[in-house]
Specification:
Elements (H helix, E strand, L loop, with lengths): L10 H10 L12 H18 L1 H26 L3 H4 L9 H21 L1 H8 L2 H6 L5 H23 L12 H26 L5 H17 L12 H8 L4 H12 L6 H8 L1 E3 L2 E3 L1 H24 L3
Antiparallel strand pairs: 1-2
Helix pairs in contact: 2-8, 3-5, 5-8, 5-9, 5-10, 5-12, 8-9, 8-14, 9-12, 9-14, 12-13, 12-14
Length: 306
């Protein structure tokens, strides 16, 4: 009977076989949309909070406008009767009329320039790392828009402390009405800024475009003067300004607590198109539609980036 011999096991051969066996592949970790949005939002908030110089200086311009334009024009224009016709109390000043517009200005400037972080991240390579990460690219646009809107809303909230100084009486109801309106305005403007910055490649180009857009949007929004009785060409421009539909409901909410007659509040804050008076609900609706359009453009821009 033949006996079959088995060669001894070669330990080196076994080790070689073991080490050359490919390791099983692990599935890539996919971050959910909400988690990605939160991470991007949180990063922008931390950067904003740590930049104390930016925090202080972003309040300087609205305060200067309030102090110089408000006090100077209030003393030269006179009392409320000269602002928008008869029917206003003698105690109502131009400074009080201008205050809601300055809130809108603080939100406008902070919201637009918060979108600069997109260009900044592109120049330093961080944006490319985000775009190749296992997250939806739409989350980048939404997170940036929410981060900028939060920063701008906080700036508007800080500006509320100046209300008693200039004689604007804020009630709990007026503050609760004002805060979501400020956030909506901030979100709309930040979405516009993100949509533009997604297509701009340099910081210099972004600053030129933003400065070109910001000042006309601010001056045509009704922040410094009522939107009634204007020349025809200027009336048309103001009706196409999205910031006007954000400041109008903010002014209505704030002046509603100052004791002005309701008819006077509507005359100072309402936007008219022909003989049609645009209600506050329509102002908010138009701003929501504008936000959705700008956010959609921003998301599409990030999805089609290489």
């Amino acid at each position: 009977m033949a006996i079959r011999t088995v060669p001894p096991t070669d330990t080196a051969t076994v080790d070689r076989v073991v080490t050359t066996t490919p390791a099983p592949r692990t599935a890539p970790v996919r971050v959910s949309l909400s988690q990605a949005v939160y991470i991007i939002w949180y990063r922008d908030i931390i950067r904003f909070w740590r930049d104390r110089v930016r925090l202080v200086m972003s309040l300087a311009q609205p305060v200067l406008y309030l102090a110089i334009f408000g006090v100077g024009l209030s003393s030269s224009i006179g009392r409320g009767g000269s602002i928008a016709g008869a029917g206003l109390p003698a105690s109502f000043s131009y400074l009080q009329f201008m205050y809601p517009g300055i809130l809108g200005m603080a939100v406008l400037f902070t919201a637009i320039f918060s979108a600069m972080s997109v260009v900044w991240d592109r120049e330093f390579g961080f944006l490319r790392e985000i775009l190749v990460a296992p997250i939806s690219r739409s989350a980048v646009a939404l997170g940036k828009a929410l981060g900028g809107a939060t920063q701008a809303t906080l700036q508007g909230v800080v500006m509320l402390i100046f209300a008693p100084i200039i004689g604007v009486h804020l009630t709990v109801l007026s503050v609760l009405e004002t805060l979501p309106l400020l956030f909506l305005l901030a979100f709309a403007l930040t979405s516009m800024g993100v949509a533009l910055s997604a297509r701009l490649k340099t910081m210099q180009g972004f600053q030129v475009v933003m400065n070109f857009l910001m000042m006309p949007m601010f001056f045509l929004s009704g922040a410094l003067f009522p939107l009634s009785g204007l020349p025809g060409w200027m009336t048309v421009l103001t009706r196409f300004d999205p910031v006007a539909y954000g400041i109008a409901p903010v002014r209505s909410a704030i002046l509603g607590g100052t004791g002005l007659p309701q008819a006077a509040v509507e005359r100072l804050s309402s936007i008219t198109i022909g003989s049609y008076v645009v209600p506050v609900v329509a102002d908010v609706g138009l701003l929501v539609v504008f936000s959705a359009i700008m956010l959609g453009i921003a998301m599409r821009s990030f999805r089609h980036r290489d």
